[in-house]
Amino acid sequence: MKADRTVLERYFGADAAKRLAEGKSGQAEQQALAGQLARIYQAMLSYLPSGIRRHGTRLAAGKKVEQTILVADVTGFTAMSEKLSRIGKEGAEEVTNIINSYFSPLIKIALKYGGDVISFAGDAFTAGFEALPGEKSPHHLRALAAVREMQEFVKNFSEVKVSAGTFPLNLHLALHAGPVMLCRVGDPSRELEYLAAGSATQRAAEIEEHSGAGEALVSQELYKLVEKQVKAEPVPAARAHRLTSIDVKAEPVEERPPALPADIDAALDELEALRPCISPWLLSNIVADPQAGGFAGEHRRVTSLFLNLWGMDFDGDPQAVTKAQNYIQVLQQAVQKYEGSINKIDFSRHGPRVFVLFGAPAAHENDEERALLCALELLSREEFKFGGLKQRFGVNSGFVYAGTIGSPERREFTVMGDEVNLAARLMSFAEEGQLVISAAVNRKAGKKFEIKSLGEREFKGKSHPVAIFQATGEKQAEDDIFARWVSESKAMVGRENEKTVLNEVIERTISGKGQVVSIVGEPGIGKSRLSRELIQNWLERGYTVFGGNCQSYGSAISYLPWSELLKGYLGIKENDSLEDKESKIRKMLEIIDPQLAEWACLVGEVVGVPMPETDLTKSLDAKLRQQRLFDLVLDILSWGAQQEPLMLIIEDLHWADSASLGLLNYVARNIGEKPILLCLVYRPIEAKQEFATKDFHTGLSLKELSQEESQQLIHTLLAIEGMPKELEDLILKKSQGNPFFVEEVIKSLIEQKVITQEG
Questions:
Q1: Could you tell me the CA-to-CA distances from 567 to 556, 581, 593, 604, 628 in Å, in that order?
Q2: Can you give the residue ranges of every domain in the chain?
Q3: CA neighbor of 119 nearest in space, from 201, 63, 212, 56
Q4: 3-state DSSP call for residue 695?
Q5: What pLDDT digit, counting tens, does each position of 250-290 carry?
Q6: Three-class secondary structure of residue 561 per DSSP
Q7: Which residues, 6 or more positions from 330, have their beta carbon under 8 angstroms from its beta carbon?
Q8: Residue 544 and residue 644 in contact, taking contact as beta carbons nearer than 8 Å
Q9: Cα of 503 vs its chain's centroid, Å
């Protein structure tokens, strides 16, 4: 077997790969494995436009092709999905079955006439028709024939009856013909994205916006080519015609992919050639179950980020594909950094549009924050501005339908729902360089960002004006610390024993005995709320606190929480000049000991302030350099503790990098006789850290609230007189004693209008 062992394991698992690599696999097993590869191959192809296979390596530089673009948009699925979301898994399965029973025949019709389904956009898809070997009818006539059959099909599918009621479904169609730039962009080590771009795709998107229920519009340009085969009436606002009848004869020209070679090595070569175009998580799902070939539908909370990119002339600029390639690679880096996923790159009337998900397929408790950080990072890239590229963003968060839609021949993982639609409309509302967000996103993440209210605006599909906001940047670290830990929130519910223990820890620290306290618990259990109580108690005694926060996307950044903590301690602000930052570091070290100033650049490395090396620092190897840094940090903290008792807090320690943990353990090892309180907040971790072995360590492991405490929290949050017992029981059942979940369930019920304010 010639294939690399890693490749064999990717598709067959470790045991079968070992037998193949060692030549111990029999003929029967090899035949079974070849059949497995064939099923994986078919499933992979179903997630890819046929243009990837048809044009191959020519897509790297971009290939311009004359195409007829067909946009098919279905309305009615969103309302149906919203209603069915209330009955859980059964509702999601029902949505999946209905959507796919509607989409599958439409896709088969497009494929029958040689259409390539380029992309899906929630409850819409786009197909491109181009000249094909063996065709007997030109692509614009084949596209017309497909439109005619689609309209015939939907006559019998004008409404759908489901368990939540009867819902109307309407098909909106748009056609335009012109040159389309097809390209494959991105980093092959992440994923290659297929892009159909140019003025022709933008024109098709523009026309679709004017297509009414059951209508098919053709552009004026295309109408001139087909006016003998159709009857139509003009639609001046769209510079298009509305088709009233189609009389066209077009021969089907369905493409079929070549069969996978029976030889395992040759078959693996084919799969590996396609692999860069498939998301790694999706490939894992396909390999695990090629027959299912995807992602089971479900309703879940997702943060949707839409990005509109323009400033690239795919019709006339030979560098346009290169610009797109450079941009998409930077985009992929940012999305990967914050652990989102690029769902698709399609087109709008203003240029390429990117849909990024935070919360599907993988979810995090701070997906809204991640989405905003990703967008702001892209907006900060100066090279895009100088390259003439323009960006705008829209972000919303809420419960949506997530699943695989389409047919066995062509499908895609996507999310759809009213919350997704609003995110797209926020993007369309945004001006160049703007990041526009919803009230839901502002509520979840706004405290960490500079937010400007844009008032209320009316949007399509919304019966009432919607409050929207602009995020302009992150808040400065020192402001963010107090936003996280010191709040004006209502009195804390429960945790009386823990609060008593923390008060005792404070008293021991003030008496001169260093203390380490760990607040440990699962997500949402109330760790941050308890730490705020501790900090408030400390501040009320007139002492100061400095803190840092670990990030799930920052585990590769050395000393990340210490950087934030030391910046606060040294008084370094983001808008300080480089000279001021250097001066603050040097002055602090000189106050402690004038000789320490020679080592200032080591502290500068941690807080992100580049400073010139000295002969002393140049002479150190990596191990000695780290030890000298640890000593400097301890010197700084010890000096501060001589002035007054000092509290340091590090949150989300479970995400800390190894260098930060090393420094933490060193500091903890040396504070036993100093009035320093070190508070560490984290989720349960398997490896026991050195700091937890000290005699002066106190561990608090938080459990779920009791039913009585949960009820108290519900009434504190809602303040409803005579609350229905059914409502209280529903919240208790869904939250399971988790304070964060109590709040989220209540917010969800309010968003879904289950709880409303009267009067």
A1: 19, 9, 20, 10, 19
A2: 5-46, 50-251+262-471, 478-701, 707-751
A3: 201
A4: coil
A5: 999 878 888 899 999 999 999 999 999 999 889 999 999 88
A6: helix
A7: 378, 381, 384
A8: yes
A9: 40
- Cβ atoms of 94 and 162 closer than 8 Å: yes
Return the CATH class of domain 50-251+262-471.
alpha beta
Overall size of the chain counted in residues: 759
- Looking at per-residue pLDDT, the higher value among 711 and 155 belongs to 155
Residues 648 and 487 sit within 8 Å (Cβ to Cβ): no
Structure token digits, residue 437: 């967000």
Residue 636 near residue 569, CB atoms below 8 Å: yes
Q: Give the whole-angstrom CA distance, residue 74 versus residue 170.
A: 6
Helix (H, G, I), strand (E, B), or coil: what is residue 681? Answer: strand
Token pair belonging to 459:
């949007």
Residues 721 and 698: their CA atoms lie apart, in Å, by 41
Is the per-residue pLDDT at 293 higher than 90? no
Q: Which residues contact 541 (CB under 8 A, 6 or more apart)?
A: 506, 510
Q: What is the pLDDT of residues 426-462, one digit of tens each?
A: 999 999 999 999 999 999 898 889 999 999 999 987 7
Token code pair at residue 589? 């070290």
Query: Both tokens of residue 157?
Result: 């599918």
Per-residue pLDDT at 721 exceeds 70: no
Q: Report the amino acid identity of residue 10.
A: R
One-letter amino acid for residue 422 of the chain:
L
Can you point out the beta strands (E) in 511-654? 515-520, 544-549, 646-651
Fold of 478-701: Rossmann fold (3.40.50)
